[in-house]
Request: fold
Amino acid sequence: MSSTPSPAPAGSRSPWRSLRHRSMRWWSVANFVSNAGTWMQLTVQNLLVLQITGSAAATGLSMSVQAAPALLMSVLGGAAVDRWPRKLTAAVSQAALAVIAFTTATLVALDRLDMTTLMVLAAVTGTVATVDNPACALLGNDLVPAEDVPSAIGVGALVFNAGRLAGAALAGVTVGFLGTAAAYFANGFSFLFVTAVIPFLRPAAGAVRQVTGRAARRPASDMSVREGLAFFARRPRLLALAGVTGISAVFGRNYGLTLAVLVTGPLAGGAGAFGTVSTVLAAGGIVGAVLGARLRRPSVRLVGALAATGALLQIVAGLSPSLAVLLVLVLPMAVVESVSDTAGTAVLQTDPPAHLRGRVLGVWGSVGTLWSLGGPPALGLLMELAGPRGALITGGVVIAASIASGHLLHRRATLATSVTLPSKDTVPQPTLQTAA
Reply:
């Protein structure tokens, strides 16, 4: 599969510029098929748990069991991605996910699936995903030059949303005509399709190439999980990105929760009204992904500015007197969030050196899982204490104030460093070398 790109203007900001590379086009098609299959299975799995147990709590538990391995094992999965050839790692993990999907489908078809087995299969899926997620994310970036990585991430976000919509729609049709097992079989075949495409992918000219095998041999300590953790902890940009993303995840962003309570409570809307809000959120996410794909050099400062803007919009949304006003605000909220996500992901996947990117993504996966598991309960408690309006306003104030404080502290530290930097004739101190 040739990767010779079609001509593109120098410095192009087209959100689709990564698709001029043939391998990226094939990878996008494969990801769409895989995402559609995954969301088809996830949709059906919730219905299946309800069918087996009749318990909504059990449904939530099955989702937590699948997500839990990422909390402790993502750092190990990231290390594996750095140590092994990327294409081989992605192909093997996709094949493993296909085996799990086919196993589940067979058990469902034979009516032999119980809740314990389903939980075990969900846990195994989550474990394989700790390797598959960073492998597939970095493989897509490996196919395009560095300046096209934001476009590749934005296209990936569009593919994800399109696959989610297609998968949810296909789930109902598939179950209605072919039964629950068919959705799992379809997901298994979607993984096999990705596995079949991967060997034919070729990096474009200028793409960062992963070095493996003898050329990449380093002392064992240089390929350890600890090295990835240490790099993350010593990198101010990544720590700042983690801080901005974390506080936004806890006090904002969970609009499916806060806006649902706001719409059905103080604004006296029903399920249909929240459905409209959700549709606008999805549309804004797509628009934001397109805008984010136009970025060429995303930065943590841009992520912080977007997060602060989203926080201010969230405060105004908390004061919305009517559903119409809220709908006007929801679109830019979703756009800002989506652009911020694309910019943050681009920084995360391009800032570390190539041989460390898997482990850095692994650290991020563990931290992100902690936020996703802890954020909704914390936000729910805040809504219990302050109501939905109070939660939106308080959360927005906390986010904006935290980002502003962090910016001021960074600026003060930068000024202090510039004042105390030695002259050219002075031998730098080790502490200054480390700080720089």
The CA atoms of residues 245 and 307 lie 8 Å apart. DSSP finds 15 helices and no strands in the chain.
